[in-house]
Amino acid sequence: MAKARIGNQNPTQSVILPYKKSLYQNAIDTYELSKRTAQEWQINLTKHIYAVNSDGLWTHTKFGYSLPRRNGKNEVVVIREMEGLQRGEQILHTAHRTTTSHTAWERLCRLLDKAGIEYNSLKATGRERVELLETGGRVEFRTRTTLGGLGEGFDLLVIDEAQEYTTDQESALKYTVTDSKNPQTIMCGTPPTPLSSGTVFVNFRNNTLSGKVENAGWAEWGIEDEVKDIRDRELWYLCNPSIGTIFTERSIQDEIGEDELDFMIQRLGLWIKYNQKSAISENEWKELQVNALPTLKGKLYVGIKYGNDGTNVAMSIAVRTLSGKIFVEAIDCQSVRNGNGWIVNFLKNADVATVVIDGASGQNILAKEMKDFGLKEPNLPTVKEIIIANSLWEQGIYQQSICHNDQPSLTQVVTNCDKRLIGSNGGFGYKSQFEDMDISLMDSAMLAHWACNEFKPKKKQKIRY
């Protein structure tokens, strides 16, 4: 009988520091007392995590790894925790959700029971604990907050659901292992989706792969770029080391739906290229503020956005400055019940180069009114162009090529927004975090910014005789 095929046991991308010795075997032996058998890829990761230098200290003081869902990534963590308890380590296991940290506690207790290892356990939702009286080793399970872990010291810090690990949480937790004689931090998770709130995991991955951090290791299973055929079984086996052991081809078949990007992230381990921040931070926006109105150059570019619910319409302008940046300013956001007169009056009296209108609920009506008043025909962008406009807006913020005068209404919307998916090819837009804030105000500024980038003023042709 032919042996069943299993997934690729080696990372598709990794950074492992050189080492000559690893203390991994005792950890694997302890884990397998529970009657479970570690898979090859789990053993290899454990070997790298347990690598030590000539002083007996961990080679990788920080180690991160990423796998698609349901591959058993937490088994590597529980292998590390079971052995850590026996060596008397103080361990903090954190997760984004209370249910996840509770499940991790249950997993550790279950395996300790099966392995015949005696322990004391505290079951308190959000603050579970496992302790070995014989060694003094303990594992604390916590749901992450910006204050969690402050004032306590640990030898091992585990960041579960690392794709949701934020900089505020890192500031509270990273110092908890500082005074350990041999500290280690392990981060594990899946690639972030466009709605993931964390940035630490992304930055750690990028910096480790580019060699910008010391004492760090990384391993991942996944595709590097978006693919056309998500039904390609070779990709399934490439990116999922536990296919054929934990789950089957048929299980993956049932996961395929209309959202191909989500499948590529969750099942094929794709790291999307754009920034995964769920919101533009107050600091990022504040850094673009000007103290006085800059010297403006050229005509105005106007962005008009009708809200998705058809309630409001917003208008903003963008114009280049003498320094080459793009200055944006919101004009107004009014109820559609007020009509388009205020918009038309502004356009008639301003020196406008291009007008961009988005929003099916009103763009054609306004375009017709502009025609009736003899105004220049507006641009009605396609979905593809809207995706480009959102990307340019994000780039402009991070590259600091945008500037503004800190209008309270615009600032409030910009600094309280999340990303949302647009289309099926990884495009994104923005949505408000709060129901009483209309994202159309920021969308109108984003459209004006795009127009200022996209539509260059025509140069007058000079005829020489």
UniProtKB/TrEMBL annotation:
Protein name: Terminase
SUPFAM superfamilies in UniProt: P-loop containing nucleoside triphosphate hydrolases (SSF52540)
InterPro entries per record: P-loop_NTPase (IPR027417)
Protein origin, superkingdom: Bacteria
